């Protein structure tokens, strides 16, 4: 939900597209719960054992990806968690590494399911000294009317919680694009990471940003927010409008 729209300096207002983080390291920012991450120190053997979860997309984001959300990424064969644990089961070090990677997963309930599922539970805008702006997520469709209003020049952080079930989700990514009067003014990408299923929700907080200020910054904006994984499977895709005003409502 980056609102760092290009009406001020490039260094502070985000003229350029932003991409953050390493897909295989979900704790770039704040997370609650234990994410499934890959580690360069795990070696080639471990990388091959769970190779599906270390894809080209999750290693780095490039400028070529900006308008290529529908690009198909070739991944290895998808496996259930039980199948992953069965691989190399005689290798003690690999077995311990996989158990650490998957955390406290109830294999009886999720181990036979191929497709991961991610549910975005909540979205909120945090502004120091003010109550959180909790954004209701529509069950279907897009929010009606203006979704929220922010004061110009205010400092804010987007925080969201999500739950992963069934299987490991690889390379979960947040993207947000903002337009004003039909012109794209901001595009943000945040690689959140790779996560194992668990009952406890994960929490992720974006870096602090600042809304633009001035007469040309005020007004209504349209935006599109998506959460997708390395398979380009979408878990949330909403289009909405918001306002930037001279003062809080």
UniProtKB/TrEMBL annotation:
GO cellular component: cytosol; membrane
Broad class of the protein's primary localization: cytoplasm
Domain of life: Eukaryota
GO-annotated molecular function: Rho GDP-dissociation inhibitor activity
Biological process according to GO: Rho protein signal transduction
Sorted UniProt keywords: Cytoplasm
Pfam families associated with the record: Rho_GDI
Acidic residues: bias regions: 62-72
Feature: compositional bias, Basic and acidic residues: 83-92
Biased composition (Polar residues): 48-60
Protein's cellular compartments: Cytoplasm
Chain intervals for the UniProt region annotation (Disordered): 1-92
Family matches, as InterPro entries: Ig_E-set, Rho_GDI, RhoGDI_dom_sf
UniProt similarity note: Belongs to the Rho GDI family.
The protein's name: Rho GDP-dissociation inhibitor 1-like
Species per Swiss-Prot/TrEMBL record: Arachis duranensis
Lineage of producing organism: Eukaryota, Viridiplantae, Streptophyta, Embryophyta, Tracheophyta
